[in-house]
């Protein structure tokens, strides 16, 4: 690849706008946004005008056929990730795909297999893993700063009023709290401990059969446990902590894109740990954009920060949680 990574943005919703704004604000000479696509040309044109993007398409197929696009950022709802990311990979484009990666592990495996077959880069847009504060936390844990991990706690929830016609209530769209919000606590726990050996869960379901409020208990043969929760009916702290045999790390509200954490160790004053100020005024998605740009310019087909096997493992856990609480999507197919 040449010295510049040329991005195409697939979808024009809020998360696409945040990502594009962060990417452009980085002013990285190694990255530029050259095209955007939506299901309607009007939406694509409005997005292109907002961000100064040269080309706007009224179909996904036109975007992936654009020879000037190197990598496609898939920002659709997760129910369309398999279709959109698969379309881009089939067209020979590298892909950054929003989380949750897909609706289930089978769809995720299909994308991973396709990317590997074509020799293309693929990454789940788990921006938390690329955050420098999270990376500093994992370094400290790996170096034994808090001893052996015993308990991880994390939650993500807000109180909302969603009618029966809202996408969060629609099983066909992967509705519920788990894929929108629960993916963050699960990914946080598995970043530290890997795939769990045991999964337990309970939930309050909507009349349509999606989860509104879910609690999870993950267990590992090491003796570690993770207590996780997600909700679209309750305003949870959205905080996280990691407790080990020699200390504890605490993240405040917004653990999935933190600017600091507090390190507690016996015999020491609590220590506030930051990892540089970072670009001011950005959401934090610039870190994943920078990682994709770095990897592509280095000729890599997978990011060491967000490995594909890790994304598959998270999807298996989410599938297991849904199995325990009785949530099925039409995309899961027949039992």
User: What global shape is seen?
Assistant: globular
Amino-to-carboxy terminus distance: 44 Å
Helical stretch count?
10
Biggest sheet: strand arrangement: 8-9-10-7-11-12-13-14
The strand count comes to: 14
Q: How do the SSEs run, as a string of H and E?
A: EHEHEHEHEHEHHEHEEEEEEEHH
What average pLDDT do the residues reach?
Answer: 95
Structural class: alpha/beta
Please summarize the sheet with the most strands. Answer: 8 strands, mixed
Task: Tell me the Rg in angstroms.
Answer: 20 Å
Percent in strands: 15-25%
Fraction in helix:
25-40%
Poorly predicted regions are none
Describe this structure in words.
By secondary structure, the chain is an alpha/beta fold. About 35% of the residues lie in helices and about 25% in strands. The protein has 10 helices and 14 strands. The protein has helices at about 15-25, 40-50, 60-65, 80-90, 105-120, 125-130, 130-140, 175-195, 285-295, 310-325, and strands at about 5-10, 30-35, 55, 70-75, 95, 120-125, 150-155, 200-205, 210-220, 225-230, 240-245, 245-250, 260-265, 270-275. The strands form 2 sheets. Strands 8-9-10-7-11-12-13-14 form an 8-stranded mixed β-sheet. A 6-stranded parallel β-sheet has the order 3-2-1-4-5-6, with helices on both faces. A hairpin with a 6-residue loop joins strand 13 and strand 14. Helix 4 runs parallel beside helix 5, helix 5 (about 105-120) packs antiparallel against helix 10 (about 310-325) and helix 8 (about 175-195) packs across helix 10 (about 310-325). The chain is globular. The termini are far apart. The model has no long low-confidence stretch (mean pLDDT about 95).
